[in-house]
Amino acid sequence: MSRIDKKQAILDTALTLFVSQGFYATSTASIAKQAGVATGTLFHHFASKEALMNHLYISIKQEFADGIQSQISQKGDLEKDAQHLWQVAINWAMANPLKQEFFQQYSMSPSIASQVRQQAMNSILGFMGELIHQGQKAGVLADYPLPLMLESCHGQYLAATRYFLDNPESWKDETYKQSSFAMFWNAMKT
Fold first, then answer.
1. Predicted confidence (pLDDT) per residue in 17-26, tens digit
2. Which of these, 130, 155, 125, lies nearest to 62 by C-alpha position?
3. Which residues contact 93 (CB under 8 A, 6 or more apart)?
4. DSSP string spanning 169-188?
5. Could you count the other beta carbons within 10 Å of the beta carbon of residue 61?
6. Contact 75, 82 (CB under 8 A)
7. Which residues are within 8 A (CB) of 60 and not within 5 positions of it... i.e. 6 or more apart?
8. pTM, two decimal places
9. Domain extent for 35
10. Which residue numbers delimit the HTH tetR-type domain (predicted)?
């Protein structure tokens, strides 16, 4: 197994164990053993379990951002653009249930350092803040403080994806899709 493969095996195993057992119940030894690497190899790549968790959080958040940002289609109608983005984001969650479960468990958890959460929100998902700012300037979105708006969007996304992961048949129902976006949009607009 190459060095890159070993690192990826550690990350994949940590993701599975953190979701199934929890951060505190998962030992670095169990991650290494299930990944098929020596514990020293794990510590070669990650200084601590916390560093591993933070890396995992940032890398999955980046994957999420890349996946949805590549599908942004700004056609000039902010509401339609936001609806498209909302559906793309939930589609990502439905296609990546283990990674979304990780977000469900750890997005608001003290297991993720505050500065790591801020990095994810401000740097990786910075395009979201820019879209909100544009909507505020245009008078379409409420003029609340941007950090609060971002956290509200994030919370609504987590609530919607929790529901759809628990009830996947509902995501196939247009009424539920439209309703989930309407609730999101109504919380944001002026």
1. 999 999 999 9
2. 125
3. 100, 103, 161, 164, 165
4. HHHTSHHHHHHHHHHHHHHH
5. 23
6. no
7. 15, 99, 102, 103
8. 0.89
9. 1-46
10. 4-64
